[in-house]
Amino acid sequence: MTVLASSLDPKSPEHAANREAMLTKLAELDAEHAKALAGGGEKYVARHRARGKLLARERIELLLDPDTPFLELSPLAAWGSDYTVGASLVTGIGVVEGVECLITANDPTVRGGASNPWSLRKALRANDIALANRLPVVNLVESGGADLPSQKEIFIPGGAIFRDLTRLSAAGIPTVAVVFGNSTAGGAYVPGMSDHVIMVKERAKVFLGGPPLVKMATGEESDDESLGGAEMHARVSGLADYFAVDEPDALRQARRVVARLNHRKAYGDPGPAAPPKCDEDELLGIVPGDLRTPFDPREVIARIVDASDFDEFKPMYGTSLVTGWAALHGYPVGVLANAQGVLFSEESQKAAQFIQLANQRDIPLLFLHNTTGYMVGSQYEQGGIIKHGAMMINAVGNSRVPHLSVLVGASYGAGHYGMCGRAYDPRFLFAWPSAKSAVMGPQQLAGVLSIVARQSAAAKGQPYDEEGDAALRAMVEQQIESESLPMFLSGRLYDDGVIDPRDTRTVLGMCLSAIHTAPYEGARGGFGVFRM
Fold this sequence. Notes:
InterPro entries: AcCoA_carboxyl_beta (IPR034733), ClpP/crotonase-like_dom_sf (IPR029045), COA_CT_C (IPR011763), COA_CT_N (IPR011762), MCCB/AccD1-like (IPR045190). Residues 22-273 form the CoA carboxyltransferase N-terminal domain. The strands form three sheets. This protein has a seven-stranded mixed sheet with strand order 1-2-3-4-5-6-7, sandwiched between helices. Strands 8, 9, 10, 12, 14, 15 and 16 form a seven-stranded mixed sheet that branches. Strands 11-13 form a two-stranded parallel sheet. Helices cover 41% and strands 17% of the residues. Helix 4 runs parallel beside helix 5, helix 12 packs parallel to helix 14 and helix 16 runs antiparallel to helix 17. It has helices at 13-38, 42-50, 56-63, 117-133, 151-170, 189-192, 211-218, 224-228, 230-237, 247-259, 298-301, 345-361, 378-382, 385-398, 413-418, 442-459, 466-483, 486-491, 504-515, and strands at residues 70-73, 89-96, 99-106, 137-143, 175-183, 196-200, 242-244, 311-313, 321-328, 331-338, 342-343, 365-371, 373-374, 403-412, 428-431, 436-438. With 532 residues, the protein is of the alpha/beta class. A hairpin with a 2-residue loop joins strand 9 (321-328) and strand 10 (331-338).
């Protein structure tokens, strides 16, 4: 056994300070998550309940197998925008009748569940996850359609929702729509394009145009029930495959539909796995509050992989990047973890070789980010840092095994790309509350702008405003700092969620299980030209 030997002292002042800083960030995160859970607020929640309806997460809970977890995705979507945190939509992965499914649920307490630009992005991200991992999709529908004041931002790209449903079905990935209330106008195509449709008696309303629009367009007098009620669609139009008497009955029928899908995972159960030998609770005290202070990523690895067992690859070469083989909840993984932050030529070449090896062996890759980017300076430029960094990015970009990314600390510059940031399509990407990501650090970016402005003034023969420079630097640093924080980035769906470090192993295990629903094969060639 190659068990990692931890040198972490949980009783040290440094660990205590790091832990306290992390707990403070987690408390802030919990407060923001509470906003998503609150939906439209007490008034609209009470009104929804008075109508005898379940809340979005209550519907999900009844749909899932008892005592099984739900991995909620993008819970902070729309954070920092004019829209409600969570973006009036709940998405995530859960187990229904033993089948891992991608589940979405409109939150009708938020503007009637209407779709805004952030809920659209959140829904499209959920569809991407379902397609990549061959997860059946269950849509729990109750939405007033597009949030009309923002229609200019959602009408054109919003058609992708319906396109995705047809592509999922064409790929043999089942889609199920359970309609609890309104699903009107463009929203009518969600059940219209789903493989299986369940509607709730006297609640579901599915029509392209409601009675007022029909009156305006044709002069016809109509009512909700005859125009688009559940019973009409079950008896007359045939749009409803199943007729439910109430919400619990609809969710029971949805479970039976999933039970009859005959949807099988591409890979079998990996079996039981030994937990880490190191205490996962200690993850709270590993990352310093100041990310400029280095830490050993092996301490993180030792607390998330099976039995803390890790076979390190090239341990004496390119030492600011740790690479090696492990298992996580029984699934094999190759791990790339930044050590001292900066990536040099040696680390880049080591990473490219390691990624190729993982593709040869069909082993998924896990990237643990804490990098300030690739090294700069004349010595390193002359040594080929551009071509070596490009080699690493080439390998990541053309790798065909599934990738998982966790932003643990810093993730700046092209290092974010080389470590498989969002633009490189990792199957899943999560962040710790300690993470930061931007084109460069706030101080560096402000300093660069200052130097450029100073040089410009000198070239024009003008005196330089030192007081104005100090104010500019302070403003830029504050802006970049705020825009590099995990809640800001998560609000824009640049990750799939900000997680408690102690949940990392569980979250990654659920993701790996979902990944193994779909077959995959590593690249045996097909990489771009490596500049040697």
